[in-house]
Amino acid sequence: MFSLTYYLKRSILLFPFMLLAVYSKSQSQRPNIIYIMTDDMGYGDLSGYGRKDYRTPNLDKLASQGMKFVNAYSAGPLCTPTRTAFMTGRYPARTPVGLMEPLTTSKRDSAYGLTADYPSIATLMKAGGYETALIGKWHLGVLPRHSPIKNGYDYFFGIHSGAADYISHKGDSRKPDLYENDVLVNSEGYLTDLLTQKAVTYIKQKHNKPFFLSITYTAPHWPWQGPDDQPYADSVNFRDGGSPAIYAAMMKSLDDGVGNIINALDGHLSNQTIVIFTNDNGGEKFSDNGGLANAKGTLWEGGIRVPAFVRWTGIINPGTIAKQVVITMDWTATILAAGGIKSQQEFPLDGIDLMPILTEKEKTLERTIYWRTFQRTKQKAIRMGEWKYLQDEKGEYLFNLDTDPGEKNDLKATQQTIFNQLKMKYGNWEKTVLQPIPL
What we know:
The chain is built from ten helices and 15 strands. By secondary structure, the protein is of the alpha/beta class. It has two domains: 30-367, Alkaline Phosphatase, subunit A; 370-430, 2-Layer Sandwich (Arylsulfatase, C-terminal domain). The strands form two sheets. Strands 1, 2, 3, 4, 5, 6, 7, 8, 9, 10 and 11 form an eleven-stranded mixed sheet that branches. Strands 12-13-14-15 form a four-stranded antiparallel sheet, with helices on one face. A hairpin with a 2-residue loop joins strand 14 and strand 15. Helix 2 crosses helix 6 (244-265) and helix 5 packs parallel to helix 6 (244-265).
């Protein structure tokens, strides 16, 4: 018969291995996470959000399998600020690269980019035991230190530029811009389809750890080209051309691509994988902004309100619609929380963990969120509850977004107390962020 002392000594010796077993179990139970971000999509560009002249059946189905948000926002009305916000989990104006609206090919702008000085979500996920991959658009710097590989991603396939020809894969300054990791590659095919193929291959490969996969499609950002179109001549502006029919073809390729990604998951990974879908800012030209005012580049609702939905089979009830106000940095905080990863204290997150909303433990969480543009437009905005204060080049406004999402009825004259409160809160917030950088 063994003594109590024997059992105590044996427990002490086994304790490290017991911890390792618990850690290994927690590793295997942590979800895979796929974050899909599209580019320049209008709030109403999916048929599930109101588009009438074409259908997006795969994206509509994905939205119906989880929680769909109707008050989701991008952190900025342009590419680089929003992508900075997702990568850092903080307002764009807290990071130098986030002040670029957006990054351009100018000599000055080339010095800016995401660096290890501001730990990215990929850096944190990797340190926490996740495999990490980015497939798609980067637009967060072109120098070696700005590379996705230097900012936490184990694997990268995509473009560094703000836009690239879908056929020739030439990006900013019309230079070849398709990379695998840090190596320029020559792959034939329509860019949206290439990104999908790489994502499907990544999902199906063997994984020794849970994975965090960022899929950042360039679609439906200009140049407006469908799969059957020709490359743009180097002399033709990327913003030229296009048509509603070409836009529909671009959206079909995107929708088919997301369908293929979900098919790669279903059957063996669907219960183990969170899928988040959203967009980086409002649309332009051929987009449907869902009746919202203005478009990309502005802080009116058409420039910043975006479609968003989340599926986690077995955890999130299908067919649910959330009125919760959310913003880009919330997806960062939610992904980190779902992966059991803690952010660094010196860089506190501005986003909140949405898991209580997604699991319906909470109906709504109070949010006050802020925006600022300076380089191409000079606008300021804050949303607190249903109220939004907006300042643009023509004046100041107050809107009740619950009753007036189209921002047609300015209430500043009749709601002076709310107007002054929001304006003061905005002024206090602006003191906490970096000064803007002029063009």
